[in-house]
């Protein structure tokens, strides 16, 4: 199958979906926190009637009632593979020319680290010695930012830093990421590290290897400063404002970048979690079709919706991280990843269409502060030569429920029933309902709806070549921590806000399309960042990176500052360790 001038494997047939009016409503799902959460989670886990009540109240039965579903077969895996000549790309030529930060109020970039290492003003070992006391949770007292980190292997980190320092001393660094600290989400396999998926359980399944995408960063000399915690264990506050969450389950990675601890981090997206921290933490985030398969098929509990992607404080670092991690794996390691082409920048003379697709009724559901930022972004892109096209997509509310249903079923399938009682309270609720309330008919209907939507999206990409679906990243201006320290200690089960928060990001995830989120503004006195998101055609990661570059002037981004913010000037502090 082809899309424009590109060819693909498994590209969905371009078929316009049924014309149905957009109808949505805010779901009525009670929120639980603190002691009530612990009690209710235990009851829901033990009592089928309680599970059934919450299941019915969430309205998942609407999926099976869609009349056109019997015309579609199920689409169980959204992976679409671009077909190109897989010419090797030299590592030295592959990354973009990264820029250092323009002024002192911006995040450091990998280029700032690289330049200081080359000049001898700083060493990777000094940076590591500065970071370890800040991120370690295995010491007393725990590090100031240990809430964002699950684990840091001190001996491994120091050994990597010493090796990188020696390479710079010899004038032979591996490239622009050599010695640069990075963070990796708990969900991703890293040799020697735990893999808990935000629980107290072991999800390594006997494997102690490193996912392919992470290995590419390590082979480029990057130093993993630790694995980041996942939101479900109460991962804490947003560096821009400690009264707000970072976002989804990749919140630990979002925190690490936004707080200045690392310039690049890896997230994993089972439901929009890569992009939500970018919205809430003022970062760039890329969900890539390469990323899903560049790890390992067993990487995620939700293989048909789980994907990987980098997040960074600069678009240059995002592009650099993506192009390294998305290199195809050897066929012996990952047969699917091996079929993807090598990522490479668009040529200077590349002509691309500039079109924004907007579903007006969908966008109208965003809250006023978000809508104001989004409308300003649309105006900005118009001035950059973009055409705005109003489009329609059928069954968006039902599609979001199908997405959630699929995630719940696949997560539940990856957990032994005897272990459900050991999960944190919010996960106990989610897994119990997913394990005992979702029927085969529900799951089949959800996959038929996925196929309907993928074919309609394919139709839009054929009718308007080069179009990106443009939305806010989240319809709400940040997720406030209403329950304070009790909420952070015991967790939160708030399905209503979770569904609301993912109202836009789920589509790219469920369709297997790449998407990029960009900082676009701030909300109110809390100074909480607001993001916008563009979803592109399958295989259009490089076009999305250029789309983000077009929007770099959307907002004057600055590091977190103010009474409720957190920021570490790591490179300045590391100068005190340089004699080590």
Automatic annotation (TrEMBL):
Residue ranges annotated for the Amidase domain, each copy included: 148-544
Any single Pfam family the record assigns to this protein: Amidase
Coiled-coil stretches: none
PROSITE patterns per record: AMIDASES
Alphabetized GO MF terms: catalytic activity
Family matches, as InterPro entries: Amidase, Amidase_CS, Amidase_dom, AS_sf
Family affiliation: Belongs to the amidase family.
Protein name: Amidase domain-containing protein
Top-level taxonomy: Eukaryota, Fungi, Dikarya, Ascomycota, Pezizomycotina
């Amino acid at each position: 199958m082809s899309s424009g001038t590109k060819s693909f494997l498994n590209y969905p047939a371009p078929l316009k979906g049924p014309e149905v009016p957009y109808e949505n409503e805010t779901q009525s799902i009670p929120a639980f926190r603190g002691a009530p959460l612990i009690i209710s989670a235990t009851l829901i886990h033990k009592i089928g009637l309680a599970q059934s009540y919450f299941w019915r109240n969430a309205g998942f039965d609407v999926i099976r009632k869609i009349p056109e579903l019997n015309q579609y077969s199920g689409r169980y895996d959204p992976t679409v593979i671009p077909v190109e000549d897989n010419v090797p790309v030299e590592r030295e030529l592959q990354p973009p020319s990264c820029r250092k930060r323009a002024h002192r109020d911006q995040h450091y970039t990998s280029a700032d680290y690289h330049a200081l290492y080359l000049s001898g003003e700083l060493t990777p070992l000094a940076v590591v010695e500065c970071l370890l006391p800040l991120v370690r949770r295995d010491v007393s007292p725990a590090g100031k930012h240990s809430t964002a980190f699950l684990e840091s292997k001190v001996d491994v980190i120091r050994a990597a830093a010493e090796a990188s320092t020696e390479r710079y001393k010899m004038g032979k660094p591996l490239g622009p990421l050599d010695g640069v600290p990075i963070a990796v989400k708990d969900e991703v396999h890293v040799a020697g590290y735990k893999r808990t998926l935000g629980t107290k359980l072991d999800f390594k399944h006997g494997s102690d290897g490193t996912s392919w995408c992470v290995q590419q960063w390590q082979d480029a000399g990057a130093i993993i400063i630790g694995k980041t915690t996942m939101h479900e264990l109460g991962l804490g506050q947003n560096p821009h404002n400690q009264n707000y969450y970072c976002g989804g389950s990749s919140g630990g990675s979002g925190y690490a970048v936004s707080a200045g601890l690392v310039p690049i981090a890896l997230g994993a997206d089972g439901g929009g979690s890569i992009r939500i921290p970018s919205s809430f933490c003022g970062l760039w985030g890329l969900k890539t079709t390469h990323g899903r398969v560049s790890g390992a098929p067993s990487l995620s509990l939700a293989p048909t919706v789980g994907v990987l992607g980098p997040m960074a404080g600069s678009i240059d670092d995002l592009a650099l991280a993506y192009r390294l991690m998305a290199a195809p794996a050897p066929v012996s390691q990952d047969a699917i990843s091996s079929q993807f082409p090598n990522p490479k920048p668009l040529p200077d003379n590349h002509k691309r269409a500039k079109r924004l697709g907007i579903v007006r009724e969908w966008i109208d559901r965003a809250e006023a502060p978000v809508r104001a930022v989004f409308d300003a972004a649309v105006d900005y892109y118009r001035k950059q030569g973009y055409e705005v096209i109003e489009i329609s997509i059928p069954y968006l509310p039902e599609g979001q429920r199908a997405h959630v249903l699929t995630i719940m079923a696949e997560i539940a399938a990856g957990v032994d029933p005897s272990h459900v009682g050991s999960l944190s309270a919010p996960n106990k609720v989610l897994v119990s309902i997913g394990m005992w309330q979702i029927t085969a008919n529900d799951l089949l209907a959800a996959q038929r709806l996925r196929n309907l939507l993928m074919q309609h999206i394919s139709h839009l990409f054929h009718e308007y070549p080069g179009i990106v679906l443009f939305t806010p990243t989240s319809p709400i201006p940040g997720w406030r921590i209403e329950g304070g320290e009790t909420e952070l200690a015991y967790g939160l089960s708030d399905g209503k806000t979770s569904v609301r928060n993912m109202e836009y990001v789920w589509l790219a995830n469920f369709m297997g399309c790449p998407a990029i989120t960009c900082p676009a503004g701030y909300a109110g006195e809390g100074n909480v960042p607001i993001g916008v998101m563009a979803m592109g055609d399958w295989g259009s990661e490089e076009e999305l990176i250029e789309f983000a570059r077009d929007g770099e002037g959307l907002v004057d981004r600055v590091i977190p500052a103010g009474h409720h913010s957190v920021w570490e000037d790591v490179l300045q502090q590391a100068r005190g360790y340089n004699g080590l």
